[in-house]
Amino acid sequence: VTIELITTGSELMLGRILNSHQQWICRQLADLGYTVKRHVSVSDTASDIGQAVKEALARANWVITTGGLGPTSDDLTRDAIASLLGRSLRQDPVILEQLKSFFSRRNRPMPPNVALQALVPEGATILDNPFGTAPGVHFDLNPNPFQSPGQPASLFLLPGPPRELRPMFTNCVLPLLLAKHPPRQSYAACTLRTVGIGESHLEHLIAPPLQPLINAGLEIGYCSRPGEVDVRLSARGRHPDSVLESARTIVRNLVGHHVYGENEDELDAVVVNLLRKYRRTLATAESCTGGLIANRITNIPGASTVFTGSFVTYSDHAKQSCLGVRLATLESHGAVSEATAREMASGARDRLQVDYALGVTGIAGPEGGSPDKPVGTVFIALATPHHVFVIHPLNPLDRLTFKYVVSQQALDLLRRTLLADSP
Amino acid sequence: VTIELITTGSELMLGRILNSHQQWICRQLADLGYTVKRHVSVSDTASDIGQAVKEALARANWVITTGGLGPTSDDLTRDAIASLLGRSLRQDPVILEQLKSFFSRRNRPMPPNVALQALVPEGATILDNPFGTAPGVHFDLNPNPFQSPGQPASLFLLPGPPRELRPMFTNCVLPLLLAKHPPRQSYAACTLRTVGIGESHLEHLIAPPLQPLINAGLEIGYCSRPGEVDVRLSARGRHPDSVLESARTIVRNLVGHHVYGENEDELDAVVVNLLRKYRRTLATAESCTGGLIANRITNIPGASTVFTGSFVTYSDHAKQSCLGVRLATLESHGAVSEATAREMASGARDRLQVDYALGVTGIAGPEGGSPDKPVGTVFIALATPHHVFVIHPLNPLDRLTFKYVVSQQALDLLRRTLLADSP
User: Fold this and answer.
1) Chain B neighbours among A 251-280 (CB < 8 Å)?
2) Taking Cα atoms as reference points, which of A142, A155, A151 lies closest to residue A62?
3) HSE of B208, CA atoms in CB hemisphere, 13 A
């Protein structure tokens, strides 16, 4: 199968937003062994959209578009494609009812232009959109009118908002693709997600021992982002599963303590799952991370069973009144110090009566650094039932990257401690 | 001038990285009044790259590629384009010397494959790369061999790493573009950023009164994301500045209270700037947002001058012990109630001695809803020096979108109140 992706939107062509659809869709397909042959972006212009789809269907037999299905005047994809394929549009009464109920559930009047989204091209299949108003559209083109001889082709029109697009892609497009075009070669892949080790160091440790598996069909890729490095292992050929398993074992034996999960695992979810598994509770006391750790923890469904709360204590007064940090400590060591981090963690642990508490204080910048304590300085304390641990990395980064990297370091400290403390 | 952009790289097509080149280059051009007509991504395959460039030159007269100029085996752009245009490659002695000196300055031996980067297609102009090893290439195609009649066309091959690409684009490509194809029409644009109003409703209100300006060269675009909608106004023609100013005035007169900023403004930064301007202090008490509001506030440099801290009180116990919410309130109204939100906001305001405090309690889901209080229920209280306001929107969304939308609603409540309270 030859797959092409078309993302539409003037905001893309004007550089107003990042094209996250390209990465997300390509990744979902790559994880199953499919490769997107070409990705095209065009603006919200009927002629540009029509031309891009026509050219894609002339080359490919599985074409996906995103965007342009909404109710406003610049949502032109549905019309452009119906006209390209010579299909008329009819109003679908079921979708119209769904639109009306979407607004009535929210106690809001339905603006008249919303009803445009109930227009469906003749002969197309509707893809349900439980997370928004614009349904998706699937054309089963048999034959493909833009190739000769025309083989069957599939054309999908998906909505632009990610929280509508992603479930529709996963629930409607992928199952059809797997059914109609099962991956031709056997293929296996996994991504090992690591924290606390740099990309070059990681490659230096694992690449030589993995070398013999390359001839057996192994491919290795590295993807470094602030606070973590992914190792992508994939294998094609005669025995992809066993090649992959050998590679995974080698990596885990060499750097397993850095591997916090695989594939879609995220460090915050891994930590919440460990807390649930071991029935431990957590609180945080955050200064320089400003609530990011609490925010990441509470992004995980079910966090409320293990996470009690957080004190974001930006001022010295808040550190004293909320956490019981002593004035003497602040005066003699400063707010950014090992002693303050310890008292923050202990104070949060006592006041919220939890098993574990993180205390984080540092200098996110761009202002506030000194020769002694430059921007990037941080103290991360973890109060446990037995001890208070403190780590003191230096992260000279921009403000937002600093906050994120510190949250990774704090969550990883907790992850390792939970694993060490538990049977 | 018709501009097309081609980004190459298997890591793009496998979804391993975000395509930041698309946004950056499109934005640079849009800010000068140029629009990229089409953007294409292909993997590191000579035939895909050659075909994409050939097709682009058949449609456009200004084509830019990124990536594939380095020394490794998957860097194929230079070869593919030379072969497409029937040009041979010659080794450029000046570039070879630069490569040698790049390595000798760093006291590193030059690997043999590096010399490949000194190969230059016949008849091409070299673009200096002060930040890396791979020079850029400019073909002045006169005539364009893929159009008939062939008008002049320019083809640029730029390196992939952002810190090499961006200066080369700014210093080499833009000046040539401005000289050869000065923006034909004068151009003006701005983006009005709104909160608290849906895309359809917004268009319904502003599109009819803007209609008369369309003939004078106005274009309107909408971009809806959870919790906000952008209205992009742009104007070409004889008087773009006055057309734009008229349009902006119409929009601000109709929905000005929803407009929190323009262009690069973000709601969190707007709120921090208002607090600084009016010398007011803020604290937050967050249950269902789990620290997201504090995290957004503390993303803004200088937040520490106005933001004291936050209580993330996930458990009932934390709501009582940290904020002084009464047991009777929790028992008779529940943790998710107007009464609890009020006591959270007032408690945070008293305990952290600030001017304003937000209190937020709701049901983020996916669990925890009931017929009375479904997932998406939220109470947002704002304690001010004079009153406690409460709003009670319903946001039946996935967990992360819910948190973000609630943070927008809370920050907007604070923004409006600050504007109303201040002279």
Assistant:
1) none
2) A155
3) 6
